[in-house]
Amino acid sequence: MVELFTVLSLTIIVAIVPGADLAVVIRNALVGGRTAGFMTALGIGLALVVHSAYAIAGIGLVVSQSILLFNTIKLIGAAYLIFLGITMYRGASRDMPAADPATAMPPLKALRWGFLTNATNPKATMFALSVFVQVTAPGTSLPVQIGYGAIMASGVFLWFVLVTLFFTQAKVRDTFFRAKLWIERSFGVLLTLFGIGIAATTSSTR
């Protein structure tokens, strides 16, 4: 029970703390509607499944103990966030989204953004490792560990579904559209800063 409570607590904390995942979900939900928001949330959840899988397999521990490998992953993640941020900034406009939300933000594109944003985020790597290396006991069975991974992925997914439902309310979207250009640019700057922050923490020692 202690392990389960800890996993649930960590999942809630990681989900609600603002970060790149939240910025991408909000942006895609506002631009592409609920389907885009849900698909972005699904992509994030699937990425957490991947993080959980390699953490359970022990690969994550190897990566975390290798300065070169860990820093390489951090730089890849930082580069992706910077690229995504610049793309958002340059693509910002006052134009209203297409009448069909799928045209403004195709579901598969939203899924890809969510997956890659989380998959390349070293903080998500450390989240998975903290659960499967530090929280679980040596005797924790594989099915239970898989269950923890499912809880983590589904918990974060459900949180971002709620975020999507809030930001796709008519009043919220109408407010966004009145300042669409600057809000989109702000999201772009925010993601770029997240990427720069990750890159800046890359060092030869940890």
UniProtKB/TrEMBL annotation:
<feature type="transmembrane region" description="Helical">
    <location>
        <begin position="187"/>
        <end position="205"/>
    </location>
</feature>
<keyword id="KW-0812">Transmembrane</keyword>
<dbReference type="Pfam" id="PF01810">
    <property type="entry name" value="LysE"/>
</dbReference>
<keyword id="KW-0472">Membrane</keyword>
<feature type="transmembrane region" description="Helical">
    <location>
        <begin position="75"/>
        <end position="92"/>
    </location>
</feature>
<dbReference type="GO" id="GO:0015171">
    <property type="term" value="F:amino acid transmembrane transporter activity"/>
</dbReference>
<keyword id="KW-1133">Transmembrane helix</keyword>
<keyword id="KW-1003">Cell membrane</keyword>
<protein>
    <submittedName>
        <fullName>Threonine/homoserine/homoserine lactone efflux protein</fullName>
    </submittedName>
</protein>
<feature type="transmembrane region" description="Helical">
    <location>
        <begin position="38"/>
        <end position="63"/>
    </location>
</feature>
<feature type="transmembrane region" description="Helical">
    <location>
        <begin position="146"/>
        <end position="167"/>
    </location>
</feature>
<dbReference type="GO" id="GO:0005886">
    <property type="term" value="C:plasma membrane"/>
</dbReference>
<dbReference type="InterPro" id="IPR001123">
    <property type="entry name" value="LeuE-type"/>
</dbReference>
